[in-house]
C-alpha cells in the first residue's frame, strides 16, 4: 500500500508529461510549440527519474492520502463540488453559498448535533458571514453574481 | 531619493484607509492558524480589480507585511505558527507566555518586527534602483535565462526534493501555455471549452494556495481543536521598548540575516527566523536561556522574518524573480495591475512602484501600533476554529475567482487546480515552483521566441543563448543551484540513514 502511494502519483505525472510532450511534438503550427517542446522534454526526463526512483523504492516517504484522510475529507469535498459545479449557479451565489457554508459547518463542527444552542450558533455564524459577503461583494465591490432562481 | 517625491500619495485619504484596513486585516489573518501570508495575498488580489493600480498594490503590500508579523500571535499564545516564517518565534515566545508574560512576548515581537521591517524596506528603497540600472542592459537571451533561474532556484532550493521541485515548475509552465499562443495565434492544450481563454493567473493562484488549506482543514474531521490558550497579563510598553533597545545584538543579527536571506531569490522567509535564532544563540552570552522564554530569541526571530519582506521584493522588482512564495503571488498581483517588473520599472511606472514601496514603510509602523493594541485580546483572534474557517475561505475563493471576469469557468478552474495541488502536496510537491512556472513560463517563452528570431538572423540559436559572460553566469547559477540541491538531498538522506 505504501509502495503504491509513491508509484501511482509518479506514474500519473509521467503519463501527463508524455501526453504534453506528444502534443508539443506532433501538433501544428510547429512554431507555436517551440517553447512547449523545450520544457516538455525536461518534463518527461524528470518524470522518468521520479518514476524510476519510486519503482526502486527510493522515493522519499510522503504523507500520501490514507483511507482515514479520505473518509474525513470526502463529505467536505463533495459539498464543495456540489456547491461549485451546481449549487452556485442553480440557487444563485448567495443562496448557494449560504447552504454550502451551513452544510460544512454542520458536517465538521465537533459540537453535538442534539443541542439547540449548537444549531443556533451555526445559523448565526452563517448569517453573519453571508451579511459580510453580501456587503463586500454586492454593495461595495458591485460584483454581479448569478441569482438564478431569484432572478 | 526619488521615493521622497511619492510619499504624499500614500497619505491621500483612500490610500491611507486601504493601508490601514489592509494592515489590520493582515494582522488578524496572520494571527489565524492555517491562513498563510501567501494565501492572504492570493485571496486579496480579486479585490484590487476595483481599485487603481497604486491602491491595489498598497493593499497587497500591507497584507504581506502585517500577516508575517501577525503570525507571531498564534506562535506565542497557541504554540502554532501563524505562518512558516514564525516557527522560530514559538521556541521562546510560547515559553515566555507560559511563564505568564504573554503580553511582553507579543510586545517584543511587534517592536522587533518594526525595526527589522523598516530596515528591510530601506534596503529595498536604496538597493532596487541600483540593481535596476545594472539590469537595463539585459538582452532577450539573458532575460530568458533569468526567468529559468527563477523557476529552477525556487524549484530546487524551496523544495524537499529537487526532482519534484523542477517537475512542479514544468507543470506550472505547461498550465501557463494553455490557451491561445500570443505570437502564432494557435490553440494550445485546449481540451475543454472552459480553457479557450487560457488559465487566468488569479483563479490559479487562489486555487493553488487556498484549496489545499481548506481540504487540509477537512482532513482533521470532526475532531475538537484542543488549543491551550494562555491568558495575557498586563505589561507596560515602556519596559518592552527598553528591553528591545538593550538587545541590540539579537536585533542586529535578526535584521542582517533576514535582509540577506530575503534578497536571495527563492530562499524565502521560512528559514530567515530559524537561521537568525540559531546565530543569535551562538553569539549570545546567555546561550543557555534560549528555549526557556528568553527575549533575545523572540527579537532575533521576529526581526529576521520581517526584515526579509522588503528585500524579497528587490529581485522581484528588478529581475521578476520573487524572493519568497508570497512575493511570487505579489508578482501575479503586479502583472494583473498592469505593472511588469523588470529593469525599467522605475522609469516606466515610478508613480505606482514608489507609493507601493513607501506604503510598506508606513505599513510597518501601523503594523506595530495596531499589533501592540490588539496584544491584549489577540488570543481570541487566533482561536477561530477550523470548521468555521474552511467554509469561509472556500466562499471567499469562489467569489474572488468569479469576480475576476464574472465567469464560472474561472471558479471551476480554481477548484480543479486547487484539488490537484492538494494531491501533489500530499506527495511532496510544493506550490511555489508551480506558481513560478505559471508566471515566469510565459515571460521565458516571450524572450525565447524573440531571442530565437534574432538568433536566426545572426549566428544561430546556440551561440545566441549559450555565449556571452552574462548568459554563461546565469547558466552557471542554474547548474549550481540544481547541483547544490541534489548534493544536499543526498547528504540529508545519508544523515537520516
Structure report:
The complex is a heterodimer of chains A (151) and B (497). By secondary structure, chain A is mostly helical. Chain A is built from five helices and no strands. Chain A has two domains: 2-55; 68-150, no CATH class. Chain B has 22 helices and two strands. Chain B has helices at residues 7-10, 13-31, 37-48, 53-77, 87-135, 140-157, 162-177, 201-219, 237-246, 248-263, 270-283, 295-307, 314-319, 325-336, 345-348, 350-374, 378-381, 386-405, 408-426, 431-457, 461-466, 469-496; strands at residues 179-180, 187-188. In chain B, strands 1-2 form a two-stranded antiparallel ribbon. In chain B, α6 crosses α7 (162-177), α8 packs antiparallel against α18 and α14 (325-336) crosses α20 (431-457). The model of chain B has no long low-confidence stretch (mean pLDDT 83). Classes of the chains: A mainly alpha (151), B mainly alpha (497). At the A-B interface, α1, α2, α3, α4 and α5 of A face α7, α8, α18, α19 and α20 of B.
In summary, what is this structure?
Chain A has helices spanning 2-26, 34-55, 67-90, 93-108, 116-140. Chain A is mostly helical and 151 residues long.
